[in-house]
Amino acid sequence: xxxxxGVLHLDRNLDxxxxxIDLDFGxxxxxxxxxxxxxxxxxxGLITDGxxxxxxxxxxxxxxxxxxxxxxxYIIEPHLSEWFLDFEExxxxxxxxxxxxxxxxxxxxxxxxxxSRYNSLLNWxxxxxxxxxxxxxxxxxxxxxxxxxxxxxxxxxGKHLKNQRPDVNYTFFMTDSLIERxxxxxxxxLLGSAKADSYKVxxxxxx
Length: 207
Hints:
Elements: E1 3-7, H1 14-25, E2 30-33, H2 50-60, E3 65-68, H3 82-92, H4 101-125, H5 129-146, E4 150-154, H6 155-164, E5 169-175, H7 178-189, E6 198-202
Parallel strand pairs: 1-4, 1-5, 2-3, 2-4, 5-6
Helix pairs in contact: 5-6
C-alpha cells in the first residue's frame, strides 16, 4: 500500500522523523519530498528551508531515489533580487571578505532586509487558496507519475493526497512539543478534510 506521511516541518522533529522512517519503512527505494524540481541548485542556499533538503541528503546517500514533488512551488516562491543572488554566490564560494566594518554592515543589513522581504512575500502568497490548489495539483501529478514507495510532505499537502487518492495509507507525524501541540489544531482540523489512517506522536528530541 502506498505510504504518505504528513509533517509539521520543524527542524526540531527531523531526527525523530528519520528514526520513525527507519523503524517503520527501512530505507525506501523511492522517496517523494516537498522539494522543487531544482532543489539541488539551492540545497546550500542562505534562505533555503533545510528541512526537506536534509531529509533528501540523508536518504540519497543510502541509495534512495529522491523525487521532487513540489513542481508548482514557483506559484508561491518570491523572486530574489540580483544583489542577493550575487551576494549569496560570493558567500557560498568563500569570496565575500569585507575589508571594512562599513562593507560588512552593508552586506549583513542587505541580507537581513532580503530575508524579511522574502519571508513576508512567501507568507502572503500562501494565504491564497487558489495558489494552494495549483501547488497541491502539482504534488498529485508527480505522485501519480512517479508512484513513490514513501512520500513525506507538509500535512496540508499530505491531506490533499489522501483526499484525492483514498487508497494511500496516511500517517500524521508530530512530536510532543509545545509548539507542535499549538500548531496541530490549525494545520490538521482547519485545513482540509481528510483524516489520518494513523497518528505518530513521539517525544520531542529536546526532551
